[in-house]
Amino acid sequence: MSELPQGVESTFRYILIAAKRAEQLIAGARPRVTGRHVKPTTIALAELAADRVPWRSVTAEEYEALLQQEVAARDAEERVPVLFPAVPPVAPLVVEPEVLEEEDEDDDLEEELEGPKFDENLEVVEEAVADELLTEDLPAEE
Question: What residue spans define the domains of the chain?
């Protein structure tokens, strides 16, 4: 871009016009020039160079009105009616654990280290010796 197109006073304005046109191309507008370009910004710059993009300077009041229209349009797009609203999650009740005294904690730890306590009144059963098991008569095979 060595020279600005006729009617464009500054490079800044030129870039703003190209950016706005590129946004329109991204949103689905059809290019006004044919060429080998694919990217929306390059197409927009080519359209500006060919003087195919109509534009005019606006006053501050016009700009504010256009800006409010764009904001209202975006808000309308974002407000899609909800047919089935999501149910808010239910937080479970938080139950705080009981605080054990230090002595109870020490006793519990000692019991875990010692293992389970067995009833002392249990009857002692003698286990069969391996030799006795081997000498027992097996049923005869037929």
Answer: 11-78
Task: Please give the CATH architecture assigned to the domain spanning 11-78.
Answer: Alpha-Beta Complex (3.90)
Higher pLDDT, 110 or 104: 110
CA distance 47 to 30: 11
- pLDDT tens string 27-70: 999 999 998 889 999 999 999 988 898 888 888 999 899 999 98
DSSP the chain: --SPPTT---HHHHHHHHHHHHHHHHTTPPPSS-SS--SHHHHHHHHHHTT-S------HHHHHHHHHHHHHHHHHHH-PPPSSPPPPPPPPPP-PPPPPPHHHHHHHHHHHHH-PPPPTTPPP-PPPPHHHHHHSPPPPP-
Q: Give the C-alpha separation, 10 to 133, whole Å.
A: 108
Q: What's the mean per-residue pLDDT of the chain? A: 78
